[in-house]
Amino acid sequence: MTAISLLKKHIAATTVLSAFIAVSSTSFAQRNETKANDSNTPLHLLQPDYPVPYGIVKKENIVEDLNRIHAYLNKVTPTAFVDSKTGKPVTDLTKIDQNTALAKGDYRIVSYEWGVTYAAMLLASKVTGDPKFKEYSDTRLQFIVESVPFFKKTSQEHADWATSGPLRGLVDPHALDDCGAMCAAMIKATRDGSKGNFRPLIDSHIDYIMNKEHKLKDGSLARMRPQPNTIWLDDLFMAVPALAQMGKLTGDKKYYDEAVKQVLQISDRMFNKTKGVYMHGWVEGMTEHPQFHWARANGWAILTKVELLDVLPANHPARPKILALLKAHVKGLASYQSGSGFWHQLLDRNDSYLETSATAIYAYSIAKAINSGWIDGLTYAPMTLLAWNAVSTKINKEGQVEGTCVGTGMGFDPAFYYHRPISPFAAHGYGPVIMAGAEVISLLNNKSFEINDSSVQLLQKK
Question: How far apart are CA 97 and CA 387, in angstroms?
Fold first, then answer.
């Protein structure tokens, strides 16, 4: 072996060791040893060496974080079409062709992740009273809905374009990812008084969810990948909130019933009652299923239940079952929160990395459940503030959200989940962080907190 080869091998080994040390230092509690003793210092008053800020969250700090995220996203998500070959703007939509594309920004404004972001911006506007958040969603949703008729006409005339076209998924959905979250956001925008004729798209998307998406014999939502008849936990969120919102919009009970059916049937297969969390995937015909409890999929599942309960009529016969599932899931998730406030990429594997988007979804969902009176704030409010404190450390000075796992399929081995990359350009982090910040502000408005014997406590009336 040459000297250069030996040097390269040494550098590689050193890199691996350094990475292990870095992970270890953030994965385990710090000892924070002191030379003081009880004779000269009250040891219980010593300041711990917390890895994230500890204490009662300040509303003004959350608003500052939300403003920074908004400023960044408003700058990097343009509303315009261009010719992908020449880069020139396309302003006359009667002349669109196969090369017409959305102007490139940092994120796709018609993705399911951005459906979450639009709904989050609407919530942030309500909570903060600042119209700029709602304007962000309204501007983009109206731009999309006004453009759809032109692209729909063109796609009908040019079937040979296959799946090309910047709005093809919305115009002609072929997967829940194409339409579910965007549909829910459009219904929320409609209910919120936003201008724009969203109803044609809403009706088309609901029809796809109800009648065209692949399902098992019992009607449970499924995909044909990575194995035939696979249930992805993620699909609860990609379908149920839109159905629940449609029930609220129309008053038609069939949408509530379908939403409830999906949650109960999929939970019956995939919720691990012992651990209190969900597996990521279930495959028809398998006798043993891979028990990988992926954090963000569990986030979509708890967010689904919160979204459903928020609009499900109080007298719906399945409401107690959905509420019981929510309580069991919250209890399970609480048992896996790390000492830094984050949750791990694989919830029950502490050597997997700490992940931002799932932590944000849990912070939002648990705060919403407390604010709605569904779970005990005395038990869960302090851990919710801790979760927000953790998330806030991942919002950088530009307003980007760091530490978010990129898009992830369903796997059958741990390495697949352990080594998914993270990126500030993973769109999944933005909507959840905005939602979490807004709902924690509501939590701080609804509840009072104190530091009692150095710990964060919900202040009870005496």
Answer: 47
